Amino acid sequence: MEIIPSTFDETLNKSSFSSAGEYAAETALHKAIEVSRRTYRASDQTQADIVIGADTVVELEGMILEKPTDEDDAAHMLFKLSGRQHRVFTGVSLIFPSACDPVLGKTPLVHTFWEETSVDFGELKKEAIEAYVRSGEPMDKAGAYGIQGIGGSFVKSVTGCFYNVVGFPLYRFSVELDKLIAKGALCL
């Protein structure tokens, strides 16, 4: 197994999607396609057995919050989330390049889904937000917090998959793989 970060420029037009889940899933698909193309070796036609792309976003009252652009943006997001419920969506896209057989006209198998989790934040004090932002932890996290770190102290409750909020819905991923195997789409 090798982790290869995608270089996909996450600039999809959010307003062209009917939900934050669709947006996250499409971004995950583009990330997976980019990595799949980049890792294909034409010289010996080798490719990965599976490429997994994932993208997590936070949605608050119809507004999609991604990673903050700077510390002010991070603080602004946290003030918005304070004392409120929001939803976290992680899109996951699975590409199976090895299922491709150009001679038989088979294209790679692609399977994309998203998971949704509701998160309730407690009331956050200005000093706590400022200290958290200074820690640097929120700077690479959707919605400017990491539930698996210090940001978890802001969370009053979670309804749904905890790992989805971390950034990868592991249980749902396993269920989706099982479905593909049961349909005969994968031979493992």
The main pleated sheet reads as: 5 strands, antiparallel
Task: Find the count of extended strands (DSSP E, 2+ residues).
Answer: 5
Helix segment count?
5
Q: What is the strand content? A: 15-25%
Order of helices and strands: HEEHEEHEHH
Characterize the structure shown.
Its cofactor is a divalent metal cation. It comes from Ceratopteris richardii. GO terms for molecular function: nucleoside triphosphate diphosphatase activity. The chain is elongated. A 5-stranded antiparallel sheet has the order 2-1-3-4-5. The longest helix is centred in the N-terminal third of the chain and has 20 residues, at 20-39. The protein has one domain: Maf protein (Alpha-Beta Complex), CATH 3.90.950. 32% of the residues are buried. Helix content is 31%, strand content 23%. The protein contains 5 helices and 5 strands; from the N terminus they run αββαββαβαα. The protein has helices at 20-39, 71-81, 126-135, 162-166, 170-182; strands at 51-60, 63-65, 85-96, 109-121, 155-159. It is α+β, with helices and mostly antiparallel strands. A hairpin with a 2-residue loop joins strand 1 (51-60) and strand 2.
